[in-house]
Backbone:
């Protein structure tokens, strides 16, 4: 069996340099060779040969690569170099000795090109900071998209098919329903978003472009949510802004309201409820009736509690109770669901947290119990582990307010068995309940001390009791 060909030293020839650049930019776009070939409507073997530097670049191929990879004419600008080297090779066949003396045996482009490709994309484990930087970098696409709409290339013959958009929607749905760690969700959503950017750039059909923007908005929303779970507030804010731009271009008010709610939640966690209410005021104008409107009001309850406005909180709770469970289906929750769904369980969990922040122990216990009951009724495959853990911690805190430490500790021990205690939302709840456990009345309880030690070790909580 012959050995596979290896990529040439990029400084060895123009073809090798172009091949190294092509591979670098393909990997940046998150595409496999076969996928790039399909998008550019060329034979897959051509992409392989170009990357290996064993085939010279042609004008039509250069144009297609620039359009698919959004490289702003890079490969077309490289054509004169390619042609010049081709002419040199033709001259070498006539007078090898003369050509050898002209080049002095030196590599054509030297070490300058070696350093250019030394930063090539590496596959494998990616650190959290690298993921966040890359995800935030994708937000630049949102700022450019309006200009892109006005400067579309004549690319009708390469328009995308419906299957590509359906595959993207299925990928978004799978990510929205995933219980994987936030870093993994962030990385996967980032990769799919890069592919959606290629699809959006390849179509001029308004309906397909709208669908691509809607998917891009959903993916950026999931990346922002992952950044939130990691406690990376600035990244969450910037990615959320891009998600809102895409949601607007995708004509999806429900998604816009959802992202505004996420930004409000992040503001609440930063102890800035005034900023949260600004986001929520805009979200209330966009949110369709039913689940989206309920989510806005549930997050608003948390803002009122942080402001210490117990009266406003009680009035809001009364209104929500009077209206009951929403019966109108949200298109975003219906088509995608998962992270984007917001039913009775999540609403009750939010309200339990708001009551807890206001010191309303009995109300908090009632809402947390209601949340867990609704979560238990949800099919296990659709159940969010982090939401169940959050509701259990809030219920435990409410039980501690009424002095029932034994029940509270049992709930906390069940949370400690999960891998979620590094989640920012879960860690914040644990730090609060840790302060309650440090009360003098529990100092002789061995189970309480063990729970405190686990919280301290996993969240970095102050260990002064």
Residues:
């Amino acid at each position: 069996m012959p050995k596979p060909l290896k990529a040439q030293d990029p400084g060895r020839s123009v073809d090798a340099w172009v091949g190294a650049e092509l591979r670098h930019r393909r990997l940046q776009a998150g595409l496999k060779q076969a996928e790039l070939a399909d998008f550019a409507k060329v034979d897959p073997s051509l992409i392989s040969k170009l990357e290996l530097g064993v085939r010279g670049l042609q004008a039509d191929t250069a144009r297609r690569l620039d359009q698919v990879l959004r490289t702003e004419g890079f490969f077309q600008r490289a054509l004169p170099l390619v042609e010049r080297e081709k002419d040199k090779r033709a001259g070498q066949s006539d007078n090898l000795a003369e050509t050898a003396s002209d080049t002095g045996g030196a590599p054509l482009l030297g070490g300058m090109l070696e350093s250019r490709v030394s930063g090539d994309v590496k596959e494998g484990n990616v650190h959290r900071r690298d993921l966040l930087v890359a995800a935030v970098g994708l937000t630049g696409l949102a700022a450019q998209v309006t200009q892109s709409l006005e400067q579309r290339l004549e690319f009708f013959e390469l328009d995308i098919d419906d299957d590509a958009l359906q595959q993207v929607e299925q990928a978004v749905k799978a990510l929205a329903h995933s219980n994987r760690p936030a870093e993994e969700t962030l990385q996967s959503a980032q990769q799919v978003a890069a592919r959606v950017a290629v699809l959006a750039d390849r179509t001029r059909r308004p309906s397909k472009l709208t669908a691509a923007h809607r998917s891009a908005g959903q993916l950026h929303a999931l990346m922002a949510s992952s950044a939130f779970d990691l406690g990376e507030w600035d990244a969450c804010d910037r990615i959320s802004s891009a998600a809102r731009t895409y949601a607007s271009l995708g004509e999806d008010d429900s998604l816009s309201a959802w992202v505004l709610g996420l930004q409000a939640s992040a503001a609440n966690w930063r102890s800035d409820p005034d900023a949260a209410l600004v986001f929520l005021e805009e979200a209330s104008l966009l949110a369709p009736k039913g689940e989206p409107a309920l989510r806005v009001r549930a997050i608003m309850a948390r803002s009122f509690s942080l402001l210490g406005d117990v009266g406003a909180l009680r009035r809001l709770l009364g209104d929500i109770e009077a209206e009951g469970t929403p019966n109108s289906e949200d298109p975003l929750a219906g088509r995608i669901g998962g992270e984007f769904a917001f039913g009775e369980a999540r609403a009750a969990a939010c309200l339990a947290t708001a009551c807890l922040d206001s010191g309303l122990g009995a109300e908090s216990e009632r809402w947390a119990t209601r949340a867990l009951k609704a979560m238990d009724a949800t099919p296990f495959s659709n159940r969010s582990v982090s939401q169940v853990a959050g509701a259990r911690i809030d219920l435990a805190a409410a039980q501690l307010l009424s002095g029932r430490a034994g029940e509270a500790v049992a709930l906390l021990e069940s949370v400690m068995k999960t891998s979620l205690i590094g989640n920012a939302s879960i860690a914040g709840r644990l730090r609060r309940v840790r302060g309650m456990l440090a009360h003098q009345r529990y100092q002789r309880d061995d189970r309480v001390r063990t729970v405190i030690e686990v919280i301290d070790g996993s969240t970095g909580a102050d260990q002064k009791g």
